[in-house]
Amino acid sequence: MSNTVMEKPPVSVPPSGSGALKQPRLPRWAPAGLALLAAGVGAGTGLAFGLDSRIQWGLIAAIVYVVATYAVTTAVEGKRQAKDRLATSLIWVSFLVALLPLASLIWETIARGTKVLDVYFLTHSMSGVITLQPGGGIYHAIIGTVEQVGIATLIAAPIGLLTAIYLVEYGRGKLAAAVTFFVDVMTGIPSIVAGLFVLSFWIIILDFGYSGFAGAMALAILMMPIVVRSTEEMLKLVPNELREASLALGVPKWRTILKVVLPTAIGGITTGVMLAVARIAGETAPILLLVFGAQSINNNPFEGAQSSLPYYVYEQWANGNEASYDRAWAAALVLIAFVMILNMVARGIARWKAPKTGR
Questions:
Q1: Are 290 and 210 within 8 A, CB to CB?
Q2: What value does the mean pLDDT of the chain take?
Q3: Which of 62, 64, 42 is nearest to 51 (CA)?
Q4: pTM over the 0.90 mark
Q5: Contacts of 6 by beta carbon, 8 Å cutoff, 6+ apart
Q6: With helix as H, strand as E and coil as C, how does 8-23 read?
Q7: Is the Cβ–Cβ distance between 31 and 69 less than 8 Å?
Q8: Residue 21 pLDDT grade (very low, low, confident, very high; cuts 50, 70, 90)
Q9: Is the pLDDT of residue 2 over 80?
Q10: Sorting pLDDT into bands at 50, 70 and 90, what band is 218?
Q11: Whole-angstrom distance, CA of residue 199 vs CA of residue 211
């Protein structure tokens, strides 16, 4: 038998710097250039055909951008890369289409709301002010919103948090399934239904009067399922290994939840609560039914009619005159700022209370 070893032929390697394995690529500035070209085509088409709406110009430019990107990429890089760039361009166009209405809304609110927004507007009420004339403020509405949203949060946040803990850590069997079902049902309840429920039970049956507390109870009903759902999802994201390690050291389950699970998920829980607060801060229907509105300052949420920022916006817009419109836009701007401040505070608390990483 021959012991000769067959030698493999040498593999040829392309010389360094050769372009044999390089795929043609578009330059980095190509997407920006195509976007500028599409914008020019959209504007030119709009002017040529007399299209007054800038939205139509933007839609034409978006279509031209997507088609041009796919065509140019196919010619230079091939169909495989063209499909990838087509998907990327569709994502960017969808993002801009979703962003433009939000940016337009914020710009319009700032442009119109700053006409009468000053210190006087923030520190005075509408008591004794003729709606047809300039003047007045939203101090009474700010107090009402802060008190009503605060009371609703004090009611809904603990109940929602404890319910989520039960569903994730303890819930088994029919009771847990029933709680989950009713939480899902409550998530889709219209705000007017919550207001009617509190109206029929609190005011008609129990014979209590209109007050900020009545409105806060309706807002708490709307807030609770959001807190439950968001907290439940955050608790499910906590790794089971952390629970098992704590239990293996002999720590009771309630203490494990308190010291391990909740601190790990505190960032997401806080964000969920703030989302629920933002959801109820702009509700008008329960306030119309239960709080009844007021032109003067009422610091007591448990007695007498109160106002709120959403109710104030509705009320001023319903007056139907220029001075009231200006006050409505200014109140809407304050409401947006109120929700943004709450979100920034929530992010700060979440970052402060989140578990520390690193050494």
A1: yes
A2: 86
A3: 42
A4: no
A5: none
A6: CCCCCCCCCCCCCCCC
A7: yes
A8: low
A9: no
A10: very high
A11: 11
Query: For the ranges 66-75, 126-135, 341-350, which has the lowest average pLDDT?
Result: 341-350
Report the distance separating Cα 346 and Cα 326, nearest Å: 31
What CA–CA distances, in Å, run from 25 to 20, 52, 74, 78, 90? 14, 38, 11, 10, 20
Backbone φ and ψ for 358, nearest 5 degrees, come out as 85, -175
Give the span between the Cα atoms of 229 and 42, in whole angstroms. Answer: 44
The answer, yes or no, to whether residue 253 has pLDDT greater than 60, is yes
Mean pLDDT of 229-254: 91
Contact 287, 215 (CB under 8 A): yes
Residue reference for tokens 């049902």: 185
Spatial contact of 161 and 231, defined as CB atoms under 8 Å apart: yes
CA pair distance 312, 205, nearest whole angstrom: 28
Q: CA 283, 218, 300 angle in degrees (round to 5)? A: 90
Q: pLDDT at position 9, please?
A: 54
Distances (CA, A) of 125 to 17, 98, 309, 327: 76, 37, 12, 11
> Mean pLDDT across the stretch 260-287?
88
Quickly list H helices, the chain: 30-48, 54-76, 79-113, 119-123, 139-165, 173-187, 191-198, 212-236, 240-248, 253-256, 262-281, 285-290, 309-319, 322-353
